[in-house]
Amino acid sequence: MSDKNSMNTKDFIIGSLIGGIVGASAALFLAPKSGKELRSDLNEQAQVARDKTNQFTSTAYDKGNEWATYAKEKSTSIAKVVSDQSAQVVDKVKEATSNLKAEAEDTQESAEEIVEDLAGEAQESGEEIVETVKQEVDDIQAKVELEKAKSH
């Protein structure tokens, strides 16, 4: 899009200059004047054309610099926003991971306590209770490992 605008501006400037020169030349050649007056008018018109060309060039250069500065400021601003948001996402992921790890450790401790309690009861109740407790412990440990796997 920048190339297209640059091309349109360039075409406009060239067209304006050519149109101005052709119009001034036609007016000078069609006006009834002496050779000396005609040369003087041609010199004046050439100077006016040079001045306008310099003015257009200066304006185009200034506008180009303004747009370059604007684009640089915007890209810097956008890069900072993206960087800040990325840092926030990383912090949130770290926090969530830390929370899941703490929950998994708490769950494992609770499971171990339950195992100890149930082991004492199992000795009193017999082998059937022991098998049930072992199954429950395995289930709890599987859940804890699943939680750990999900958090990683």
Folded structure, characterized:
The protein has 152 residues and is mainly α.
Structural topology:
Blueprint (H helix, E strand, L loop, with lengths): L1 H29 L4 H91 L1 H25 L1
Which terms summarize this structure?
152 residues, mainly alpha, 3 helices, 0% strand, rod-shaped, transmembrane
Number of strands: 0
Q: What string, H for helix and E for strand, traces the elements in order? A: HHH
Total individual domains: 1
Strand content: under 5%
Q: What characteristic shape results from the CA principal axes? A: rod-shaped
Instruction: Enumerate the spans where pLDDT stays under 50 for 5 or more consecutive residues.
Output: none
- Tell me the helix content: over 70%
Largest sheet: none
Cα-to-Cα separation, first versus last residue: 45 Å
SS content category: mainly alpha
Mean pLDDT: 80
Enumerate how many helices there are, as a single number.
3
- Give the C-alpha Rg: 42 Å
Short note summarizing the structure:
The chain starts with a helix and ends with a helix. It has one domain. With 152 residues, the protein is mainly α.
